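INFO batch 0412 | record 1 of 1 | parsing
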Amino acid sequence: MEQVSETFTVGGSFTVDLRRLTVLRELQRRGSLARTAEALHLTPSAVSQQLAALAREVGVPLTEREGRGVRLTGQARVLLAHADLIAAQLERARADLAAYGAGGRGSVTVGCFSSGVLGLLPGVMRALAERLPHLRVDVVEAEPPDLFTALDAGQVDVAVAVDFAKAPPHTDDRYSRVDLFADVLDLVVPADHRLAGQGRVELRELARDAWIVGAADSCCGAVARSVCAAAGFTPDIRHAVNDWAALAALVEAGQGVALIPRLVRPLYEHRRVALLPTEGQPASRNVFAAVRAGAERDAVLAAVVDQLRVGADRLTADVNRRDGLSPPDTEAPTPAPRTPPPAPPTAPGTPATPPP
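INFO prediction complete | emitting tokens
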């Protein structure tokens, strides 16, 4: 599914190129011409040219110099508020057109963080293959902010992400989002660790251990650091790795301790390590799905998001039941009431089947 990329005429007075609005929206997110250019695979010069052309189209300055960089003008922020509404309305139009002639065919690209690809998507994709057999579902591994740059550009249709500093806030009207589940983090220590074999442990008991975490700019790296800070200590980070299998191997080799999400627990079942739930309120990370605002009316995308929600519910119940682990002591973010999504399309002549 490709996002509409055309021009938009306002009141007959000026015409706006929506691709240039995308550049302006990305500059708002990234904060600099260089980072905007990198995200959009353009040169800084090309970004400047696009912004200058957009400023000519609307007849107001959109950027001003600030030291060696630029910042958005007040007029640019006014235009961005309208740009979000325009993008959402175009998505609604595309969704209405798709629903009008829907046949359950085509393709959807899902962007997702690594442990979600490992633990959540396989079951969801199997269910979708039964529910919409003519739909092709592609998966791209990505995290914010790049994941949402791809969503804005139409390179991704559904984003599955973790709430952390680089993810959009709940109040971001550019996206329609659904909270899926709270993924609990457990401690993993070497099999001969002094705490191995115990029940629940206080996180502070490992304040003097060597730690293995993800890179600081990754969702799990950021979450692990913030969890340790909330427990009252700064971890002694000896290894920074983003690959869960590599992290498991380092823990097994006695190189440190780590926090792992329950989504990736199957990777650790045959390792010589010990998994320990934490005492009190367990640390967790909120997992959510998002589509471009307006696209939630698309019957196929609604079916994909609904299957993600069903899969998340089943996964959480299965993991907790299998491992005898408790969910977070506090309630996980409550999804919106389950109103039936638009009926997923079926192939002509095929009776509709209820969602699995």
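INFO post-check: The chain is about 35% helix and 20% strand.
INFO record closed
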